[in-house]
Design brief:
- The strands form two sheets. The protein has a six-stranded antiparallel beta sheet with strand order 1-2-9-4-7-10, with helices on one face.
- The protein is an alpha+beta fold.
- A hairpin with a 2-residue loop joins β5 (48-52) and β6 (55-58).
- The chain is globular, with a radius of gyration of 19 Å.
- The protein has helices at 116-128, 132-146, 154-165, 172-179, 183-194, 198-213, 220-226, 232-243, 247-252, and strands at 2-6, 16-24, 28-32, 39-45, 48-52, 55-58, 62-65, 72-76, 80-87, 107-109.
- Helix content is 40%, strand content 22%.
Length: 254
């Protein structure tokens, strides 16, 4: 499997973390854990499906996946080639008027969000491209054509910063106090921009910090309390929701 990461051009950097070119000659099934932002994908060859139980649902060649509170299982065909776009936490809303929370726990075709003819044009150009750089350029040009001249919601950006500073353990009531905003309007603005409630987003940030912690020599007990869980039972239940596995089984494969 080949996996190459590219950083976007300067105009896109406030909204896109990075782009990835991924190719796999073998058919495979794999698990994806919740990232902190939305992810857009273009299959320029091969086919991708999402697996739920024993059912495979084939995805359109161009799609987007919203923030999720649990893992997803995907299956790719042999000889697949994909461009992935990882949005920053506030990035998606700079390309469409669709509230990000309408994609929560969903994978949709890009035809449902952007002009169908524009998507078809991108897909055709990606098929004709012969190098990774050409494909990255095609996707960047599409993103630039959709980029809207709107101001970033600075209050939500500050909330995201505070959540990361606390490694996802900050209480939402504390955020409201620090940002001088009541809970209801804050929640509404946060969902629209980020794609989930602030509490759920904080839990995703905390989960990803736990994943990083598993590569250290810290014991599971230390990781549990370092991440502000009151007891190991709650910690284990939370981890299994995000991964579908127990901590012991997961750590065994690291």
């Amino acid at each position: 499997m080949q996996f190459y990461k590219y950083f976007p051009n300067e105009s896109l950097r406030p909204y896109i973390k990075y782009l990835v070119v991924s190719e796999n000659e073998m058919e495979s099934e794999y698990k994806v854990f919740p990232p902190s932002g939305l992810v857009m994908g273009f299959q320029y060859k091969g086919q991708l499906a999402i697996v739920k139980g024993n059912i495979e649902n084939k995805l359109n060649s161009s799609g987007i996946t919203g923030i999720s509170d649990r893992y997803r299982i995907f299956k790719n065909s042999a000889g697949i080639g994909t461009i992935l776009v990882y949005f920053t936490e506030i990035g998606f809303t700079h390309f469409t008027s669709l509230p990000a929370n309408e994609l929560y726990n969903l994978s949709l075709s890009l035809d449902d969000i952007f002009d169908k003819n524009n998507i078809s044009e991108v897909e055709e150009k990606l098929t004709l491209a012969t190098t990774e750089e050409q494909r990255i350029n095609v996707v960047e040009q599409f993103l630039l054509s959709q980029l809207k001249d709107i101001e970033t919601d600075k209050l939500i950006a500050e909330a995201i910063k505070l959540i990361y500073q606390s490694n996802g353990t900050v209480r939402i009531k504390e955020l409201n106090q620090k940002l001088f905003i009541s809970q209801s309007p804050f929640e509404k603005r946060f969902r629209k921009v980020v794609g989930s409630s602030p509490k759920k987003f904080a839990s995703i940030v905390r989960f990803n910090r736990i994943l990083d912690s598993l590569n250290t020599r810290n014991s599971l007990t230390e990781i549990c309390y370092d991440n502000n869980f009151f007891d190991q039972a709650h910690f284990i239940k939370n981890f299994k929701q995000f991964t579908g596995e127990t901590l012991e089984n997961f750590k065994r494969f690291l």
